[in-house]
Amino acid sequence: MDRRTFLASAGSVAAAAQLARGSTVAAAMPGAAVEGIVSSNRGPTYGHSVCRWCYGGFELKDLCARVKAMGYGSVELLSESEWSVVHDAGLACAVANGPTSIVEGMNRRETHDRILKEAERLLPLVAKAGIPQMIVFSGNRRGMPDDEGLANCADCLRRIMPAAKAEGVTIVMELLNSKVDHRDYMCDRTPWGVRLAEAVGDDRFRLLYDIYHMQVMEGDVIRTIRDHSKWIGHYHTGGVPGRNEIGMTQELFYPAICAAIAGTGYTGFIGQEFIPALDPMESLRSAITLCRDPRAG
């Protein structure tokens, strides 16, 4: 064995040992193994949120009390009748429900007038409730070419932007997978979403990057977050495969992903959107530890 081969071999062994050690540490204390991935300079941190629809078995008031005690600061994806419940519990709502559905969204021009009317009704209420963002969806393709759908979505969003800017509310369109959960959904890949954001060209429009959905569709999550963070306004979690708990039994390593998010300077909320297969509250308690912001110390 020559010197170069020896050094390469020794380096591989050392790296493997370090990786194994990191995995053991992460299993015992999630997040500890990735502490050094971001700068040690402490600064503003992101918050933790829970997506309401995943916990429909709990009354909203009860859910708020339980997650607040764990350190969550938000319960999200709420309709206007629910906003006051969260507010009264001392929590934020990171994202309000908007004027579209997953299937019937902005990619068809015949929906635009109705969407605009409802958006202009909702946005002042969202702002008054102190909610920073409102969710929208592209809609399904139903044979429509992606370029045509993108142009239609951009036109609809540009019509909404004046109201969003006037109220100080950011519109976020969610990236969803069309492979498993939402067959035929158009906004199903990050490059398409980035092209849309560029076409809209407004700071009040951003993408909701769902980590679960984009792992299913395209993978390369950490690189994507780093490369396109300027277009991302919110994040959702979920375990792959299955969309269940985000612990150590699935293919996404959330401590490293969240360290990458922190490294972009993100200070919004990360929303837990997994469907619990185990005890829901224990799963949420574990998730907030896994997704700890390394900047928090």
Draw up the topology in text.
Blueprint: H1 3-28, E1 47-51, H2 60-70, E2 74-76, H3 83-88, H4 112-128, E3 133-136, H5 146-167, E4 170-174, H6 190-200, E5 205-210, H7 211-217, H8 221-228, E6 232-236, H9 254-263, E7 269-272, H10 280-290
Parallel strand pairs: 1-2, 1-7, 3-4, 4-5, 5-6, 6-7
Question: Can you give keywords for this protein?
Answer:
297 residues; alpha/beta; seven-stranded parallel β-sheet; single chain; 10 helices
Explained architecture:
Helix content is 43%, strand content 11%. With 297 residues, the protein is α/β, with parallel strands linked by helices. Strands 2-1-7-6-5-4-3 form a seven-stranded parallel beta sheet. Helix 5 links the parallel strand 3 (133-136) and strand 4. Helix 4 packs parallel to helix 5, helix 5 packs across helix 6 and helix 8 runs parallel beside helix 9 (254-263). The termini are far apart. The model is unreliable at 1-42 (pLDDT under 50).
